[in-house]
Design brief:
Elements lengths: L1 E5 L3 H12 L3 E6 L14 E4 L5 H7 L6 E4 L4 H13 L5 E6 L16 E4 H13 L5 E6 L4 E7 L20 E8 L2 E3 L12 E6 L4 H7 L3
Parallel strand pairs: 1-2, 1-4, 2-3, 4-5, 5-6
Antiparallel strand pairs: 7-8, 8-11, 9-10, 9-11
Organism: Lentzea pudingi
Keywords: Ion transport, NAD, Potassium, Potassium transport, Transport
Pfam family, one: TrkA_N
Length: 218
């Protein structure tokens, strides 16, 4: 994919390095000369410009990008970049960094955001996920809140141990997408069986999150 990243601070550069190592074409857009350091991610294309200016984005070729990541440390900038990417350049996927959790409600489809990433929320979710058994932990919100990635960990004495995935009766708007077991990542097949301690990842709507919990006996 061709990916544009607005903001070449520590976060933007780290994302760029990961994407480049995975074989993607990356363009870093940075206004601040202090953060403009092409040697830090040599494989990326670097553009010194204001990502909030339409003409700068046109000159940079944002219309050719499959994904735009608004990764600056300023929520206002990230919202403007997201809106321009979606409305002016019809970018298929727009991901925005949320710096202040109180601004999270703004990062929606109305501002062109497909996925909002809030570091405080992710950290809190990771803490909950590591210590919580039998509770639904929301890891990420997808598609402007239309769906969530949630996790629930089975206790060691779960009555579902040894039972096949096909025997689970889940609500209609919930899909089991991954089972984490020790160091393994399992894409569940109908005949796969569950074990105590399994971490189950679902894509679901908020309305049925508690129904998942009930279906697993919690």
């Amino acid at each position: 994919m061709r990916v544009a990243i607005a903001g070449a601070g520590a976060v933007g550069r780290s994302i760029a390095q990961e994407l480049v190592s995975d074989g993607h074409q990356v363009m870093l857009i940075e206004r601040d000369r202090a953060h403009f350091d092409p040697n830090s991610v040599e494989q990326a294309e670097w553009v010194q410009a204001d990502a909030c200016e339409l003409s700068s984005l046109e000159d940079a070729g944002m219309q050719l990008c499959d994904v735009v990541i608004a990764a600056t440390g300023d929520d206002k900038v990230n919202l403007v970049v997201s809106l321009l990417a979606k409305t002016e350049f019809a970018v298929r996927r727009v991901i925005a960094r949320v710096n202040d959790p109180t601004n999270e409600w703004l990062f929606t489809e109305s501002w062109g955001v497909d996925v909002a990433v809030s570091t405080p929320r992710l950290l809190a979710a990771m803490v909950e996920e590591s210590v919580t058994i039998g509770d639904v932990v929301r890891l990420m919100t997808l598609r402007q809140g239309q769906a969530n990635l949630v996790e629930i960990t089975l206790d060691e004495s779960t009555p579902f141990a040894g039972r096949a995935v096909s025997e689970l009766t889940m609500p209609r708007d919930a899909a089991l997408v991954t089972i984490l077991r020790g160091g393994r990542v399992i894409v569940p097949q109908p005949d796969d069986t569950l074990e105590g301690g399994d971490e189950l990842l679902f894509v679901t709507t908020a309305a049925v999150e508690q129904d998942i919990k009930s279906a697993l006996g919690y």
